[in-house]
From TrEMBL:
In the N-terminal section; belongs to the glycosyltransferase 8 family. It is a single-pass type II membrane protein. Keywords: Glycoprotein, Glycosyltransferase, Golgi apparatus, Manganese, Membrane, Metal-binding, Multifunctional enzyme, Signal-anchor, Transferase, Transmembrane, Transmembrane helix. Residues 74-106 are annotated as: Disordered. GO terms for biological process: protein O-linked glycosylation via mannose. It comes from the Eukaryota. This is LARG2 glucuronyltransferase. PANTHER family: GLYCOSYLTRANSFERASE-RELATED, XYLOSYL- AND GLUCURONYLTRANSFERASE LARGE2. One of its GO terms (molecular function) is xylosyltransferase activity. Pathway: Protein modification; protein glycosylation. CDD domains: GT8_LARGE_C (cd06431). Its main location: Golgi. Bifunctional glycosyltransferase with both alpha-1,3-xylosyltransferase and beta-1,3-glucuronyltransferase activities involved in the maturation of alpha-dystroglycan (DAG1) by glycosylation leading to DAG1 binding to laminin G-like domain-containing extracellular proteins with high affinity and in a phosphorylated-O-mannosyl trisaccharide dependent manner. Elongates the glucuronyl-beta-1,4-xylose-beta disaccharide primer structure by adding repeating units [-3-Xylose-alpha-1,3-GlcA-beta-1-] to produce a heteropolysaccharide. Supports the maturation of DAG1 more effectively than LARGE1.
Amino acid sequence: MLRSWRVKLKLLLATVTLAVLLSWLYLFMGSLEYGRFLLLPPCLGEQPSRDMEREALASRVRRVEEENQQLRLQLGQVEGSDGSPQWGTSAEDGDPPRGEGSNRTACPKQRMVHKCELLHVAIVCAGHNASRDVVTLVKSILFHRKNPLHFHFITDSVAHQILQTLFQSWMVPSVHVSFYNADDLKASACPLFPEVSWIPNKHYSGIYGLMKLTLTKALPSNLSKVIVLDTDITFATDIAELWAVFGKFSDKQVIGLVENQSDWYLGNLWKNHKPWPALGRGFNTGVILLLLDRLRRLGWEQMWRLTAERELMSMLSTSLADQDIFNAVIKQNPALVYRLPCFWNVQLSDHTRSEQCYTEVSDLKVIHWNSPKKLRVKNKHVEFFRNLYLTFLEYDGNLLRRELFGCASLPSPPSNQLQQALEELDEDDPCYDFRRQHLTQHRVHLFFLQYEFLALPNPTDVTLVAQLSMDRLQMLEAICKHWAGPISLALYMSDAEAQQFLRYAQASEVLSARRNVAYHIVYKEGQFYPINLLRNVALANTQTPYVFLTDIDFLPMYGLYDYLRNSIQQLELPQRKAALIVPAFETLHYRLTFPKSKAELLSMLDMGSLYTFRYHVWPKGHAPTDYAKWRTATVPYRVAWQPDFEPYVVVRRDCPKYDQRFVGFGWNKVSHIMELDAQEYELLVLPNAFMIHMPHAPSFDISKFRLSAGYRGCLQTLRDEFHQDLSRRYGAAALKYLTAERSL
């Protein structure tokens, strides 16, 4: 409290001082118009130089204004984020030295950013890797932001699916997201729409590295300005500070850029090095401020296109994608550019002048990993930069779901429905934790690693579907060796664990060689393992007509993928509703010579090195498979549903979803098989298929089930509620399940 009053007193004194100085200056000048001019942000380049006393007085006014601003900032820090309703450009955002391209051509009024003003950010993103990079960028922005944000993503179809699902499941308050299909922008049918596909580009970003040139047309016509960012950017400050720089543009300036910090455009990197034309060192386009309305009035599309056509006659292709064309345009029209201070784009590539952008690393605002080496770049402060990046890379994104207090925000309908459902929960309910977990909205990052989508799946093709957590990673390589077909996996991990998994997968020769394994990250939240949510995520993102629903701790027999496809065709499954059962076995040995045939498996079964699955702890789960009949069966045979039956099956992709009320251990598969039976699926056991469960330590959830009577009681409550829902959906036919349960 004492510190707060001290700051307030200082602020009051500074305000009085400023008022006195301004009054004195007004009387001294004798001109109301000129006095009012001095109330705008100072612009000494335009002041009369003949009156030194007048200039000294104006300088004193500026210093008091700056001190005033710093005191307001201190006061805001004392009182909290709500103590200061506005954000403006920091004192460090001063104009650069005079010279070529100077910003002192005019002195616009510096505009403050209201804390509830909506800020617009545009990002071009294509593919799986860029989608991961975008998440880290967005985290760094959300961590510092105090304003509502609207992200505009120009994407390919892959990034669109990934990011749309991510933001829908993330549900960050006061964040809006729009998507624009880059495939449409590459070659529009509209003759007025600029195309970029005709431009040869040597840069690794490919065609998408040219998309920023199209933003005046790609983005909504009523959007007047936008911050444009590369995906390899990390923010170390509130993006509102950068947005405030728009207020410093002159009437002619339309593009804000930081000077390029390498010698690329100087043309002296090697013999016969011939870069595109640029103004001095040129500009880097990793961070751009665009005044879209002015660019449209200038005829931006025609301007950059004519420039590109002319330069390509001699250059033949771009080397740095859109950056070359932006620089060629600015070379011809230097008045268009506003030079941003270089701490708004500290470029961490080898042999740059990035270290001249800051005195202390704490002065940084935006870090740009624009070298192909990324985190391995050479810089004496690279450890600091790397740690900052890794902080956001592994930061728990759930913590960024914070409200912006004081700003009116209209939550989306899903958010409203979720909030209403949460408010309706009874906290005194013994099963409150189970019900709360069921309603938890988990962030989902689909296709976390590179995945090759099938152009036209075979009508009998089948995908292995499973879920896992960090403690089951060791099973992935073995499963990939046993199953050659497509795989869809949902992984339950924290942000930090997801990065550990990424490093593990990239270092594995087996996993890195596969392009038909889809990894979908479901981020941790809550105290129970959301097993059926995970299964549904993996199931929903398959492409093949059929799915093999299994668990990660089972190894399928060698050749099972081909056997299942043949069985689907021979049994004419497309014309019937059936679930093919793959008999399950288990071993208690961590080292196992895996049987290569049914005959070998039967021999191991007789010798006691293999067992039918869970025969000693839960025989009801798989007894209906009828293992005795399977031993001699040569053709598929039908079995009837029985209580607690939970086989592993092959079904059509459009099968019923798993019931997500069942979390943790118990009844998660039983309920699914019950619903398949309610929908009159035939249950057919395959005579020459098998899978073997590998031993592992008990899960945390099964331990809770065994030790907690309350846990078991809540599971019974959820079972009763499931029966009631089943009866409502399927009528009298579902009564047999409740009757069968009660008869046990």
